[in-house]
Write a structure and sequence with these properties.
The chain is α+β, with helices and mostly antiparallel strands and 79 residues long. It has a two-stranded antiparallel sheet with strand order 1-2. The longest helix is centred in the middle third of the chain and has 20 residues.
Length: 79
């Protein structure tokens, strides 16, 4: 908690990322302004956590696109 305070974080929202009822990770969103998170904000973060759980369950990893490769993220290229 000290780290977040030192970074100027004043509000946080954390939601679980679960697969089959098992906790896999926690998705944490922080805000440096005093604005409270709304129910709509929570719904969005919960949806993101569900997408992260699905991707993790399928073994999908985020891959940044490389300007040299010309391939879109997630696109397989054969040489």
């Amino acid at each position: 908690m000290r780290t977040t305070m030192a970074e100027g974080v004043v509000t946080q929202l954390a939601v679980p990322v679960e697969i089959g009822g098992q906790l896999q990770a926690v998705l944490d969103v922080a805000n440096r302004s005093a604005r409270l998170f709304t129910d709509h904000d929570e719904a969005i973060v919960l949806r993101l956590a569900a997408h992260a759980a699905t991707a993790q369950a399928l073994g999908i990893e985020a891959r940044p696109s490389s300007p040299q490769s010309g391939a879109a993220p997630g696109e397989n290229r054969r040489s």
